[in-house]
């Protein structure tokens, strides 16, 4: 009964792992992965000398670390706020709204963002003009996106994240709180001395899982929000968008496969390192 | 006993209600603007931009979307059939795998888990995946690839296993065994029915993944008959090929591009938003199950 899933993973996960040799090949369609001639390190030379390697590495890591930090902070904050709320109606309604973005695809978020920020009739520029200001060229200015990308990341995921943390808070023994109240703790002390410490294990697991993906940026978001916008690419290109663009349209297998290899190896190393670090700190928190 | 509000509680409540309220409004706002824009005439959008309430009410965009419904309808059918078929298969096989990992009699359980888990640690990258699908397996341009790419998630299997460990009693299976039930029979008649809450949640995750998928068709599908909804939408958004994508006409009159895009977005988002209240109930419930570390 385990067989179907074994076959699936052999074909769709383990077989592509062998394809990693592609990074050392000069790929042509007739030869396929095994028939194409060896290329040595030339694909990597090309990737690193193109200057892309540094840009995408920097962007991928920087954006993801910022995303992760903000996401964890806001998810926990919102979860604590909701857990302490008494009004049922407000709680439920707010939660429904916040979870809504989780259900829609990045394609649609991309449409939102375009409608909000495009130059001619976007909502933001309409409002600015209404107040008598000059329209802003958001799609042509990289610096805005340093804020917009994290914003939309939070917009889409915090509702979901807060439910995860809320579930953990619900699992906390109520007696702890009752005892604290008896001792005259304020609500802030309750949160600081009970809720936060008891959320730690959940947080460590979730952060650890996310750290393993630090080299795999939020591809769908970057692709749908930025696409192939040349003016923004230097400040928003990540490894995944680079690989994807190299495959769609005019395929550049050398670049795609060497960048992909670089990513896979870095990912693997980061997961092992993060897990090892957590293991040193507290064995129970680690993933494996 | 009524809990009296002390000052710290009051301060805290003010902060929490305003932060959560603000965040709730921010998440809802784009949906409102989108809906309103789709009912606004093109001229009004171009002149005044978008607004929360439609200024110049018009059904024009929707009329255009449904003038030639074939392409849209076709995309709907593709999306629906991929989602339904994929979700059912994924649930059935994931539950089967989880059941095997759950049964204590199974030798090498940990090794089997690791066989799955390892794929989340290391993978061959998109380039080799692309070449294997296209060149080795020749699955490009098939319905099958749309179903297969998003089929299994290791995390889902592990969540299902934890659920079974937490909620199924060993004695239940033992007594069934004494009554002469085979392994597969026990799975079908005991384990599956008792895992409903977890299956509902995982099913929802999986279905959502299928419904919102646009990059599998972008990478692997060229045949327009196999385009799912999200990809059609993406093509309309990113290119000017509105006419060929949804209107099979040589319509040369100026098209209301912006409101048409919005109407199409609404049409493609509609079902998932309608299913949302229903789904949300299971979802919140199910996440509670999954989040408790097992």
TrEMBL record, chain B:
Q: Which UniProt keywords apply?
A: Cell membrane, Membrane, Transmembrane, Transmembrane helix, Transport
One GO CC term of this entry?
plasma membrane
PROSITE patterns, A to Z: ABC_TM1 (PS50928)
| Residue ranges of every copy of the ABC transmembrane type-1 domain listed in the record | 76-268
Keyword Repressor applies: no
| One Pfam family cited in the UniProt record for this chain | BPD_transp_1
Transmembrane parts of this sequence: 12-35, 75-102, 114-133, 139-160, 187-211, 262-279
Stated membrane topology is: Multi-pass membrane protein
Record flagged with keyword Membrane: yes
Q: Which family does it belong to?
A: Belongs to the binding-protein-dependent transport system permease family.
What protein name applies here? Carbohydrate ABC transporter permease
Q: Which organism is it from?
A: Paenibacillus antri
Query: What are the top taxonomic ranks of the organism?
Result: Bacteria, Bacillati, Bacillota, Bacilli, Bacillales
């Amino acid at each position: 009964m385990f067989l179907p899933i074994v076959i699936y993973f052999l074909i769709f996960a383990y077989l592509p792992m062998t394809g990693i040799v592609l990074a050392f090949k000069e790929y042509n369609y007739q030869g396929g992965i095994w028939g194409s001639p060896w290329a040595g390190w030339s694909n990597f030379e090309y990737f690193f000398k193109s200057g892309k390697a540094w840009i995408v590495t920097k962007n991928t890591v920087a954006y993801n670390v910022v995303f992760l930090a903000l996401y964890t902070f806001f998810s926990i904050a919102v979860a604590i706020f909701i857990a302490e709320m008494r009004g049922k109606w407000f709680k439920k309604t707010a939660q429904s709204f916040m979870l809504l973005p989780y259900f829609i695809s990045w394609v649609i978020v991309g449409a939102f963002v375009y409608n909000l920020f495009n130059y001619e009739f976007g909502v933001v520029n309409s409002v600015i003009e209404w107040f008598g200001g000059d329209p802003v060229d958001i799609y042509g200015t990289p610096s805005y996106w340093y804020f917009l990308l994290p914003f939309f990341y939070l917009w889409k995921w915090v509702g979901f994240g807060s439910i995860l943390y809320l579930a953990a808070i619900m699992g906390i023994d109520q007696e702890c709180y009752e005892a604290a109240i008896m001792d005259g703790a304020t609500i802030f002390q309750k949160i600081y001395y009970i809720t936060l410490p008891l959320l730690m294990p959940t947080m460590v697991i979730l952060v650890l899982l996310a750290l393993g993906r630090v080299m795999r940026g939020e591809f769908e978001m970057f692709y749908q929000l930025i696409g192939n916008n040349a003016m923004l690419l230097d400040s928003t290109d990540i490894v995944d968008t680079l690989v994807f663009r190299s495959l769609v349209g005019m395929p550049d297998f050398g670049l795609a496969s060497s960048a992909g290899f670089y990513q896979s190896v870095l990912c693997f190393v980061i997961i092992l390192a993060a897990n090892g670090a957590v293991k040193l700190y507290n064995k129970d928190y680690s993933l494996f | 006993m009524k809990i009296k509000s002390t000052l710290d509680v009051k301060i805290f409540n003010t902060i929490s209600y305003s932060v959560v309220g603000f965040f709730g409004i921010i998440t809802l706002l784009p949906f409102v603007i989108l809906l309103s824009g789709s009912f606004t005439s093109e001229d009004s959008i171009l002149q005044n931009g978008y607004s929360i309430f439609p200024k110049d009410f018009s059904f024009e965009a929707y009329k255009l979307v449904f003038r030639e419904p074939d392409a849209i309808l076709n995309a709907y059918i593709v999306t629906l059939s991929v989602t339904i078929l994929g979700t059912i298969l994924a649930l059935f096989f994931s539950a089967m795998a989880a059941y095997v990992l759950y049964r204590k009699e199974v030798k090498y359980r940990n090794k089997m888990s690791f066989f799955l888990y390892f794929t989340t640690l290391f993978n061959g990258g998109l380039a080799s995946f692309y070449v294997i699908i296209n060149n080795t397996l020749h699955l490009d341009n098939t319905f099958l690839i749309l179903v297969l790419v998003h089929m299994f998630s290791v995390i889902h299997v592990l969540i299902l296993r934890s659920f079974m460990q937490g909620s199924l009693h060993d004695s239940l299976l033992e007594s069934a065994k004494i009554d002469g039930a085979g392994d597969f029979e026990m799975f079908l008649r005991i384990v599956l029915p008792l895992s409903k809450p977890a299956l509902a949640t995982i099913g929802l995750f999986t279905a959502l993944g299928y419904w919102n998928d646009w990059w599998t068709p972008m990478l692997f599908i060229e045949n327009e008959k196999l385009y799912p909804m999200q990809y059609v939408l993406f093509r309309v958004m990113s290119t000017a090929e509105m006419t060929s994508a949804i209107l099979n006409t040589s319509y040369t009159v100026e098209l209301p591009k912006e409101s048409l895009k919005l109407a199409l977005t609404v049409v493609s988002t509609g079902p998932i938003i309608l299913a949302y209240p229903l789904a949300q109930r299971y979802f919140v419930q199910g996440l509670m199950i999954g989040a408790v570390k097992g």
